[in-house]
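Reminder: ligand-aware prediction takes two inputs, not one.
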Amino acid sequence: MALRVGASLIARQLRSRPASHCTTRHATPSRRHASSLPPGCSYHADFLTADEQDALIDAIKARLKGTGYERDHWDAVIARYRERELLAIDDDLAAAAVERVRAFLRREQGVTSFLPPHCIDLAADGGVIRPHIDSIKFSGRVVAGLSLVSAATMVLAEADPATGEPRPGARVSELRLEPGSLYVLADESRYDYAHAIAPEGRRLSLVLRDAPADFEERSL
Ligand code: OGA
Ligand code: MN
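Here is what comes back for the chain with manganese (II) ion:
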């Protein structure tokens, strides 16, 4: 039987962080190092063809059909969004595009085992992903995302892995994510930097993650 994971469970598992974040969320990290990307972070413009983008947009919209946008909770990492695992992809071109990302991550990052692709729709009005580090319990060493429909800015800020909080004087990088691009967060950029997404309009994304090392034993 296929494992069906609802939106709120994805949100809780992947982006959980302790409540203590609330006390320091107005920290203003320095932008001295804004020009260079953190170690382990790479950006690949035009990874997808225009046809692949259209096919993936249709597949994601079909998967999210009938689900409403989540409301903004004051302490939530993600607001005005819909998300699901994209377990089966009917369209050949969309499926091949996802497989191309997996092949790239196997080759470039040595990834051997993937979690189901995770699709996210951020609403044009108020959709946002606030700074967080993806759960180290439910996700592995590599987080890679395809951006679709409209551009967004990813902000990466050196953070305390225990809390996801930007450090005082943290190094901060801004990465503009164009539609059709792929970004990869691995190693330091995945574990020691919080990432946040500020969209410029409605934005769809498809995020691929590897399974954490002991994931299969744990899920038996
Ligand atoms: C997430 C996340 C980034 C994106 O879902 O945890 O950071 O590109 N997503 O949508
Ligand atoms: Mn994330």
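The pocket of N-oxalylglycine (ligand 1) is lined by residues 14-15, 120, 129, 134, 145, 195, 197, 205, 207 (CB under 6 Å). The chain has a mean pLDDT of 88. We will return to this case in the review session.
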